Amino acid sequence: MHHKLDFIRKNYFLYVLLAPALILTLIFKYVPMYGAIIAFKDFSPIKGIMGSDWVGFKYFEKFLSAPNFEQLLLNTLKLSLYGLVLGFPVPIILALMLNQLRKSAVKKNVQLILYAPNFISVVVIVGMLFVFLSPTGPINHLITSITGKPVMFMTEPEYFRWVYILSGIWQGAGWASIIYVAALANVDPELHNAASLDGANLLQRIRHIDLPTIKPIMAIVFILAAGGIMSIGFEKAYLMQTSLNLPTSEILPTYVYKIGLQSGNYAYSAAVGLFNSVINVILLVTVNFIVKRLNEGEGLY
Predict the structure, then answer these.
(1) Which of 95, 289, 244, 53 is nearest to 184 (CA)?
(2) Is there a contact between 179 and 88 (Cβ–Cβ < 8 Å)?
(3) 54: three-class secondary structure by DSSP
(4) Where are any strands of DSSP class E within the chain?
């Protein structure tokens, strides 16, 4: 204990730098957890949280037995899993391709083009989707010239997931590749030179030099992505929703918003949100355990 106090005393400035982030995390992340108690109460804004009557797991049972429970859960899982499977390898591939560019000016220009979509707001992205994929938009103009009829991308339920996922990959893959590009920058060029002299081609060098370098980062990023499967973005899904694509676009976050803020059923929405969070934690722990077993004991914790 005395040794720890001496360490803190010697490095107090580091703890001072850490304090603002720690305080903000406590205020905005941990303190609001107190509000989750309304999921177990018949919450009334007039009575307040502590004055409302306890109802136990009433709202959890109500949600699990709701007619739309299966549809909401499957829509959320499908959107997240498809996005993870299709989107996870793209930043890695981009980073490996960028790592092969030797001219600094060309590499910087390509990176600028790849990173730019990340800074476009979700509202603007969805607006662009509605413009480009509308029945009279440029993409449908091309499709109509070939097939004779437009494709209703933004209203047909079967197209919602693909539009959501592919636009998300386009927007975020470049930015997500930064961490891999940074890791690959630490690879000793002499390793590639030596491998080339031994007759290794480009794919062999990537497989035996580059991929092992970024493997630990890949594991951590995958664990975090898999642990957030149920925390799919609310804003984009809600903005892309139309009355015609609801069978696939209605997911848990949009449902919580509608029944909570729009309908005023705060306790029920809190129960659904808490259910969502518990599933996330279970997925995070499970995926971390599996990755540690497959990755020689290296995981998130």
Answers:
(1) 95
(2) no
(3) strand
(4) 41-42, 53-54
* Main-chain dihedrals φ then ψ at residue 54, nearest 5 degrees: -70, 140
Q: What sign results for the dihedral spanned by CA atoms 71, 80, 137, 131?
A: positive
Three-class DSSP category at 53? strand
**Cβ contacts of 132 within 8 Å, gap of 6 or more:** 138, 139
Inter-residue contact 130 to 138 (CB < 8 Å): no
Q: Sort 29 into a burial class: Cβ within 10 Å, 0-12 / 13-18 / 19+.
A: exposed
pLDDT at 31: 87
Buried b (16+ CB within 10 A) or exposed e, 234-271: bebbbbbbeeebeebbbbbbbbbbebbeeeebbbbbbb
- By the 8 A CB rule, do 52 and 37 touch? no
> Residue 197: enclosing H or E segment and its boundaries?
helix 189-197
The position carrying tokens 């892309």 is 240
- Give the whole-angstrom CA distance, residue 65 versus residue 5: 54
Name residues of the chain where pLDDT drops below 50: none
Sequence-distant (6+) residues with CB within 8 A of 83 are: 164, 165, 168, 169, 232
Backbone angles phi, psi at 41, to 5 degrees: -130, 160
Separation of alpha carbons 103 and 265, rounded Å: 58
- Report residue 231 as tokens: 């925390």
Find tokens 């440029």 and name the residue: 138
